[in-house]
Amino acid sequence: MDHQILQTTRELIDEVGYPALTVDQVATRAGVGKAAIYRRYASKAEMAFVATMHDQQLPAPAGTGSLHGDLLALVRAFHVRMAAPAARALAPALISELSVNPELKSRFKDTFLAAEQAAFAEIIEQAVARGELAGAVDPAMAHLLLLGCLASALYILNLPVDDAMITDLAAATTAGITALADRHHSNPDKAEPPSRADKTAEPH
Fold it and tell me: How many separate domains does the chain show?
C-alpha cells in the first residue's frame, strides 16, 4: 500500500502539478481510503515530500578518499532530487507547514533530517580516520553548511544552481568543516585561562 500511495502521488504531480494535487485524488486512484493515507502522512505536503524526495534510498557515502570529494558526490546526488520540478513546487508549502505544525516538525527532524545527518556523520568519521580532520564535527552543522545552503538557493533565493555552484558549495563546506575541526580540537595542550579563584589578590 505504501508503494502504491507514493507512486500514485508522483504520477499525479507529473500530471496536474503539486498545487492542484489533492489527497482525495491520490486515494481514489490508489484504491485506498483517505484514512490510510493520513495514518502515514500528516498532510499533502508531507506525502508529496516523501514521494518525490525521501522515498528513494539516500545516497551512500561515495568513498572518494577525500572529504571534498565525498561532500561533492553527496551534494550532487541531493541536487538532482531537490532541483526536480516537483520538489521545487512543494518545498515552500512544506516549509510553511513545518513552521506551524510542531508534530510534523518533530517527525521531519527525527526521520528525514536524522537520516541525512547520519550520512554526514559517516563522511566526517572517515575524514577523521584518514587524518584530514583534527577531530569530529557536529554532523548537523555540516548538514546546515551544505544542504542548508543548497535548499536556500533553490527554494528561497530561486537561484539557477548549476554544477559550478555545487562544486563551490562543496569546497566552501569542506573549508568550513576543516576550520571547525581545527577550532574544536587543535592545540589540546593549550593552557586554560586561570579561574577567578586562582587569581592572586590585588595588592592593597
Answer: 2
